[in-house]
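Hey L., structure's done. Input below.
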Amino acid sequence: EVQLVESGGGLVQPGESLRLSCAASGFTFSNYVMNWVRQAPGKGLEWVSSINEGGGTTKYADYVKGRFTNSKDNAKNTMYLEMNSLKPDDTSMYYCTNLRYWGQGTQVTVSS
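Output:
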């Protein structure tokens, strides 16, 4: 059974940091490009970042570039998203996905 389980979300103040994790099982994690996608309340899905199979190449949406860092540990079947300088606009449910399977999401709320 394929599982993607996100964790690490929470409530933080603007300017603070969070580290999200995505634990994968049930498929060969090292063979897949992985993505972070978010959805704010009342809005559509918004792609955040992707990382290639080996973890050596990352891409970011302009609105997170320079603040977020995506990484992948194939030995641990886990992807991470280090989020710094968080803004209220970053408030969303964050999902990890290989575009075929999706996790249940972890909520990030940025508010003073």
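The chain is about 0% helix and 50% strand. The longest strand covers residues 18-25.

-- N.
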